[in-house]
Amino acid sequence: MIEFMDLKISFGKKIIVKEMNDQFSENKIIGLVAPNGTGKTTLLRTLAGIKKPADGYVKINGLDFYSEREEYLKQIFFLENSDQLYANLTAQDHFNFTKCAWHSSVDPNAIIRMLKMDSYKNIPIRKLSLGMKQHVLIGMYAISDAPILLLDEPMNGLDPTSLRIVNNLLRSIKENGKTIIFSSHDLTNVHTICDEVLFLHAQKVIIVGNTLDIQQSYDELYLSEDVILP
Ligand SMILES: Nc1ncnc2c1ncn2[C@@H]1O[C@H](COP(=O)(O)OP(=O)(O)OP(=O)(O)O)[C@@H](O)[C@H]1O
């Protein structure tokens, strides 16, 4: 369970979220959607305890980051982007490390097979393409077996086949009782795999079930705000 209570997030006078009071139960894939610069990464960073709220708090499975930091952090896996991977280590190294650090029973070789990474699992990260590095990141999430996975635009750089494989992987992680929150600009894919969609708009959070037309909701919220060029 993720609980947001009177959460306010800001950078000084710049408010990202004014007041958030929402709850998310387990076993869900939640898409986080908003235009560039609205605050998706900032919200994920706040959930991960990297950014301190200006007010209010987040509880994860009843745990508070500031008073129960160690237990709180055991609930979440969050790697902001592939720049955080070790350039001289391989995918296999990252997977082995993640399995060990998280005391996970997930078999890295099964994930390598599922993500079709055999041909590059032993190549240093610095020699991989963006899409290949995204596979490494997503593989680490799967291997962590953490209850809550926070992903920032994980599908960027994936080809259509990889996207389908990653979607299937996320679905199977969810079926194991996990909660996945991922930010994305790909509304079609959000519609394909999410149970709920969380829009950030006008410093507020708007949650919609995925029965609605996501594109239509997006247009209604944001299109009128488009800048009209002279
Ligand atoms: N460290 C910081 N100090 C001050 N302002 C920041 C900082 N980090 C982000 N911001 C501002 O907060 C706002 C939200 O940024 P954020 O990166 O969370 O947006 P985003 O929705 O993830 O954008 P994108 O879709 O482009 O990745 C932006 O206006 C950004 O300039």
TrEMBL record:
Tell me the keywords, alphabetical order.
ATP-binding, Nucleotide-binding, Transport
Q: Does the keyword Transport apply?
A: yes
PROSITE patterns annotated for this entry?
Answer: ABC_TRANSPORTER_2
Top-rank taxon: Bacteria
Domain ABC transporter: from-to ranges: 2-227
Instruction: Please name the GO terms that the record assigns under molecular function.
Output: ATP binding; ATP hydrolysis activity
The record's Pfam families line, in alphabetical order, gives: ABC_tran (PF00005)
Name listed for the protein in its UniProt record: ABC-2 type transport system ATP-binding protein
Please tell me the species this chain comes from: Trichococcus flocculiformis
